[in-house]
Structure formats: C-alpha cells, structure tokens
Amino acid sequence: MVVKYSIFDNIDSTPEAYEAKLRELYMQMIHVAHSKVINKWDAQDAVQEAWIRILTKYGTLREQSKLHSWAKTITANIALNLNKQSRRAQSQSWNESDEDKSMHQHDEEPELMMEISEMLAKLDPRSRTMMLYKFYYGFKDQEIADAMQMPVGTVKARIHRSKLQLKRWMAGPQPGMN
Q1: Which of 74, 91, 108 is the last residue of a domain?
Q2: Closest by alpha carbon to 120, among 108, 133, 107, 109?
Q3: Structural domains of the chain, count
Q4: Which stretch is the leader sequence (predicted)?
Q5: CA separation for the pair 44, 30 (Å, rounded)
Q6: Structural domain range at position 101
C-alpha cells in the first residue's frame, strides 16, 4: 500500500520511509538546538516547540524543498529565544544573597576542580575518557561507543562501574573497614 504524505516532497511514500524522513529531520533539529542553547537541557524543549510551530505554520512554507532549512531556522530561533528567557530569569532572581553565595562558590571552585581532576586521574585511561565524554562533553552512550569502537553495553557498564568507584573514593575510608 502506498500512502501520500504532504509534509515531505508531496511524493508517494511508505509509512516507513516517511518515518525515516521525520527521524532524520528531528535529528538535524536536535543538532541545531544543541548548538544554540546555553543550557543543554533546553534543547529538547526547543525542538518540541519548533515541531508545534512547524505543524501549525506548515501552510506558510512556500517551497517544499526548503522544509529542512525552514525547520532548522525555526529551531535555531526558538533556541535563541530560550536563551534570552533564561538570562532574563537569572537576572531577575539575582540579589545580594545570591551574589554572596556566588563569591563563596568561586573561592571553593579551584579546590573542587583539583579534587575532581585527581579522582579522574586515578581511573584507567579508557574509563576516564568515557566519563569525560559522558559528563563533560555530554555525549550519548551510543556516540561514545562509536568514538571508542566498542559495544554500547560495554560503555554503559564501564561508566556505571567508574561512577561507583568515584562514589567510593568520595565517601572515603569507612570506620572499621580497611
């Protein structure tokens, strides 16, 4: 059975092909959102808002061939607007007690960074790399697996074991245990 979908090129397509095209567009939009937002947690929100806008304003798209560009532009604009909203919210909530806390945190920050670096240095090089990819650079498990050329299950297990090891080191020696 051939089904005609209007959002992609007005061509006859199977549901599977249509879904693949939607998934491809979604991944491109996620990439754009991640590159534009300050707070990486806002990327999903930006893409969801962009999809709503695309579906409600689809009739205004003049050239069907420019759907991807149009969708990515909408996503980028929404992401930038989220950044502005986030900055406004932060500036409104900023007061003297927040300023005092911030100054105190900056005094402790070098010590904390040094402690984190020392703990990460204790991990084996592969585990340390995975932890940095995951928690510093924000890579997904599959991206780490691809970069390190290993199964995703291995990556998940190593990250889990490394987190447990770091927790043990942070807790320090327990009374009565050697």
Answers
A1: 91
A2: 133
A3: 2
A4: none
A5: 7
A6: 96-171
Work out the angle at residue 155's Cα, subtended by the Cα atoms of residues 150 and 157, and round it to the nearest 5 degrees.
Answer: 130
- Quick: pLDDT tens for 118-155: 888 888 989 888 888 888 778 889 988 988 899 999 99
pLDDT at 158 over 90: yes
pTM of the model: 0.47
SS3 string, 134-151, reads HHHCCCCHHHHHHHHCCC
Name the residue type at position 3: V
Tell me whether residue 178 is in a domain: no
Note the pLDDT of residue 170.
Answer: 80
177 inside domain: no
